[in-house]
Amino acid sequence: MNIEDLVGEYSIIGSNQDEESNSYKGKLILSLDSNSRIDAIWTIGTNQQQTGTGFFKNNILVINFRYNGEDHNIYKGVAVYKCISKDILDGFWSEKHGNPLFLGEERCFRIKTNAGPLN
Fold first, then answer.
1. 24 φ, ψ to 5°?
2. What gap in Å lies between CA 48 and CA 100, rounded to an integer?
3. Alpha-carbon span 81 to 105, nearest angstrom
4. How far, in Å, are 76, 114, 115 from residue 119 at the CA level?
5. Which phi-psi region, left, alpha or beta, contains residue 72 (left: φ > 0; alpha: ψ -120 to 50)?
């Protein structure tokens, strides 16, 4: 597998970095920048946007992310995904100010598009 195989849209199911492991759903879009590094955009729920940049080696994807919280503070962290296949990413994440006793978890499933030949 190479980094180009990961480009696309994924639906995500995750749990937060807290004792309750509150779950969430969303979408992840992966693209490549001019240096063939990963650009990531998460949409958690319907409106929380997070962005990140990362790199890929040995089927491991690492993304440093950031977002603006509802309290207008900037939150940062890192997400690490084991690339099961080009269609399934299994990961965990941690925020700088999250509960250090827990890790967030996330599973990503490629959203397939039916881009067949045009008639």
1. -150, 165
2. 23
3. 10
4. 46, 14, 12
5. left
Which stretch of DSSP H or E encloses residue 73? Answer: none
Distance CA 64, CA 79 (A): 6
- List Cα–Cα distances, 86 to 10, 21, 105, in angstroms: 11, 27, 19
Q: Are 29 and 9 in contact (CB under 8 A)?
A: yes
Q: From CA 71, how far away is CA 54, in angstroms rounded?
A: 26
One pLDDT digit (tens) per residue for the chain, 119 residues: 999 999 999 999 999 998 888 999 999 999 999 999 999 999 999 889 999 999 999 999 999 999 998 899 999 999 999 999 999 999 999 999 888 999 999 999 999 876 555 54
